[in-house]
Amino acid sequence: MIDIDEAARKVDDAARHVSAIGQISLQEPFSVDEAYRIQRASISLRQERGERIVGIKLGFTSRAKMIQMGVDSLIWGWLTDAMLEEDGAPVDLVRFIHPRVEPEVCFLTRKDIDRPLTALEASSYLEAVAPAMEIIDSRYEAFRFTLEDVIADNCSSSGLVIGAWSTRFEGLRNAGVLMRFDGREVQLGSTGAILGNPLRSVVQASRLASRAEIVLPAGTLIMAGAATAAQAMPPGLHVQCEVAGIGQAEFTTYRSV
Ligand code: OOG
Ligand code: MG
Q1: Prediction pTM value
Q2: pLDDT > 70 fraction of the chain, expressed in percent and rounded
Q3: Which residues pair with 57 in a beta bridge?
Q4: Which of 75, 155, 221 maximizes ligand 1 atoms within 8 Å of its Cβ, making it the mutation to test the pocket?
């Protein structure tokens, strides 16, 4: 049987020391349920250090991401305040092992989500939507993992940049998504790539939360999952993401040491 706390400490240490580890599943196989327990235990370690949960993220909600990473089940993880980077600001890559960035949309809830929602109800639980980018940084060597490994590693989540909030939910079904590095297009897609409509990520989030017996309080951030594959991100870059009809988000990268 896998030692949940020891595995949690491994991923937490890897993140804190910015040092990749081997896949945990290669040393000791474990189940999806155990993976979520490891994830929860690793987040508790962050909370003990003063980090605050601000929301959740969904992963593998698009074919592009499933194909890129060779994993085909929807997954979810936690977002903490320490992961938030300011829109337009410089991001220091020193705290990442091998960072990648991916274009998403982020929702802000306006009511507690305490049961599974239907697609029709989803938008009435939302305050706003914003173009966003997730910075992912697998704690595993070579960014390689099984489904269980990546769940245990909080689904690679490391940072997020959220653009200006909008209430234009209607346009989300098929809005063009464009990510640029130094003005050059690196990823092109549509919000429709996210479960056919990113509002379905809210439905999924409500189901996952119910199953885990947690309430998502009003004011929760929900990252819907990437619309395109992720892109490796060196220092010295201007990164921009545009979601047609919704807005844009941007940041620059540097390395302090
Ligand atoms: C896992 C995280 C997947 C997404 O948006 O699909 C994800 C990874 O690719 O390392 O965040
Ligand atoms: Mg993501």
Answers
A1: 0.98
A2: 100
A3: 77, 223
A4: 155
